[in-house]
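Objective 1.3, modelling of assemblies. Example input:
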Amino acid sequence: MLFGVPVVQIVLFGFALTNEIKNSNIVIVDNAKDMASQQIINKLASTDYFIIHKELLSSNQIDASFKSGDIKLAIVFPLNFNEDLTHTNHAQIQVIADASDPNTGTTLTNYVTGIVADYNAQFNKDIEIPYQINQEVRMLYNPDLKGAPNFVPGVIAMVMLLVCVMMTSISIVREKELGTMEVLLVSPFKPILVIFAKAIPYLALSIINLTIILILSVFALDLPIKGSIVLLYAVSILFIITCLSLGLLVSTGASTQQGAMTLSLVGMMLPTLMLSGYMFPIENMPMPLQILSNIVPAKWFYITIKDIMLKGLGVRFIWKEILILFGMTVFFLFLSLKNFKKRLE
Amino acid sequence: METETVIKTKDLTKRFENFVAVDKISFEVKKGEIFGFLGANGAGKTTAMRMLCGLSRPTSGEAIVAGIDVYHQPEKIKRNIGYMSQKFSLYEDLTVLENIKFYAGIYGLTDKQIKDKSDELVQKLGLQNQIKILVKSLPLGWRQKLAFSVAIVHQPKIVFLDEPTGGVDPATRKQFWDMIYDAAEQGITIFVTTHYLDEAEYCDRVCIMVDGRIEALDTPYQLKKSFNVDNITEVFYQLARKAKRAGD
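Predicted structure (tokens):
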């Protein structure tokens, strides 16, 4: 571990810590379909920054794209783009960015600005009155570019992990260490009740923590909660249970309290910090890490919470993530039970 | 008068892959008996005891504990036995009274029974002034006695004691054995494992395990006579020299 962890950290930080955002999915509504718009579209497509996911037929479809997919940006060209440009030397395009992560939103719009400016410059070499393509920028979901919607879900995930994984596993392992677990096992006390009894206080504590964090965030940090609060709590409780089952799994693997703590911190919290999308956007990471991030439960929680808070999405849009969290919980519980039974034999 | 047999094993075996921890042991324990299980570490004492407590499933052989088959109803066994672990199995952060109430509750005593039993225990142990004290502040000797009392709070048929006298001075050990005698007189069968060989003298019968097998099983007096020695320690050394498994 002394050698592995530093190496892994260098690799991860070396790759994950880029601020450049590449390969973002964008959609285009090209009402003009003329030479100028096509040229700009080609320029956009040829960079590493963007992947043109789809060319939409009308602006009405933009909202749906943002909601259902990974779309980070939409660009709309008005009807007479080329004409306006050649006759009045002035035209406007609309740029709509997903500002759930305000850093990403800003960065991407800056890329567009750069690309359009580049296009401008090409033409302005040959003519006397310079072209000017303005951009009307709209930051979707987070017009004030608040940072809170970005880090509050991350903080919630971290706190849940700390309480539910680390404290639960330490609590169970402590009984093992002290020898009282043995006595409980010999008694009529059913093992599953022991587990319940260990988990419930931390479940309650986590819900209280969640409430405190939300109250503080909404009133002191202006955190928006556009979606249903009931759904927010429901998903959070699901995530809490996922973390509790992770705590159980850790407790079967550790025989000392220190071991449980180390396993929780290094094995659970560190990957979550780095791979959940909380600190570093997942899209920036190389493919292997992106695939790895799928097994981090916090990643799915993070997506659903942001969708509920910022986009006001309902179950219809986030059922996939909910199902994944649920599946993970069942899997962890199954593994824990298997390990537990094995120890008894 | 024929006394009831509370534990009966026949060719009881526990195998972990290629390692045979307990090798075909057979013995009977009568009600009210103080039955000692001696052996070096690694001889198989704890494994054998775990099987009798319903904690571990035997690989083969038979075992009936308190009339219950260990294969079919291990859970039912737990209701009828008491257990005291090496670490005294008390919650250090709870008070004396809280520990008594907790374990009494687990074994299904009613509220009234818990109250009566707690009072009785506290009187017997002389802990009237200490019931609100955290167990971690109790001296080791008191903890030991409390742990034993708590293990038999529900008047089980058999109580299993796993190395119960570790770390305690000889005077306290003697007092502890007095408690054991008391319990045996009330009809509770005592099954005790120990590596303090002098304690074997306190038992009605002693069983010495070496390498997973029973090498000797008799009263202390008979054992000393047949090996022609003065004390159980000598008996043990003679048997242990045959041992192939290295203990601690």
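The domain at 19-123 of chain A is CATH 3.40.1710.10 (abc type-2 transporter like fold).
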